[in-house]
Amino acid sequence: MDDLDAKVQSVRSLIHGVARNLTRDVYGPQEFPGQTRFEAIEELGVRLGDALTREFIEHAITQEAEQLEADEHACPTCRGSTEHRPPAPHVLETRRGTVAWNEPERFCSACRRAFFPSMP
User: Fold this and answer.
1) Structural contact between residues 54 and 98, judged by C-beta atoms closer than 8 angstroms
2) How far apart are CA 59 and CA 39, in angstroms?
3) How far is the C-alpha of 97 from the C-alpha of 70, rounded, in Å?
4) Which of 8, 66, 75, 92 could tie 108 with a disulfide, CB 3.0–4.6 Å?
């Protein structure tokens, strides 16, 4: 089992609870789809999984971007001080669909260069 599998296993009970809640919200309080075809249940599960994946990615990237925005960053060219610029919208097409977030931007007045800081 690799590190990612271990992380998934550590939240297995949470995943189970989310699945129960989604089933109830989609199919009603009986939590039983009745005569629904398996293919329809599977397709809805895939779409729900994709939606959850996009939300997870956006949330994780947004948290990282907020941390980067709060940190001080030296210019990668001259190592001088930089100033905050308004975050730039960033959109990325993933295996599960489009995700979007605001990416922090910095500007070095000495180099007249804008850049997006990254984690060390």
Assistant:
1) yes
2) 30
3) 29
4) 75
Q: Which residues pair with 1 in a beta bridge?
A: none
Q: pTM of whole model > 0.70? A: yes
* 14-66 residue pLDDT tens: 999 999 999 999 888 776 666 788 899 999 999 999 999 999 999 999 998 88
Given a contact cutoff of 8 angstroms between Cβ atoms, the answer to whether 98 and 91 are in contact is yes
Does residue 15 contact residue 48 with C-beta atoms inside 8 Å? no
- 90-96: long-range contacts (C-beta < 8 A, 24 or more apart)? 94/53, 94/54, 94/57, 96/49, 96/50, 96/53, 96/54, 96/57
Residue 5: Cβ-neighbour burial (10 angstroms; 0-12, 13-18, 19+)? exposed
